[in-house]
Amino acid sequence: MRAGRWHTWSPSLLVGRDVHGATLGIVGFGRIGQAVARRAAGFGMRLLASGGDAAAAAHMGVTMLPLPKLLSASDFVSVHVPLKPATHHLIGAAELAAMPP
Known about the structure:
Radius of gyration: 17 Å
Helix content: 25-40%
Strand order of the largest sheet: 3-2-1-4
Number of strands: 4
Shape: globular
Largest sheet: 4 strands, parallel
Oligomer: single chain
Number of helices: 4
Low-confidence stretches: none
């Protein structure tokens, strides 16, 4: 408090970043990824997807991208892939570093 860094409590103190208008990258555009996309669309989010049903993505207005491009263009990422040897460590430090702050 003496340093002047304390801000009084307000209802928005712990709310976090606004998702309205932000870009959501959905990794794994199967049944669950599509359900997330429907909900995110209600918040006016720009939707990107990697992996999964390209026809469903086109129908829903979701842009399909390779994973590296999706990560670099997304404000938020939601991962919906089964844990298999091919998906183990799919997202690591290098992938997170490729994302915007």
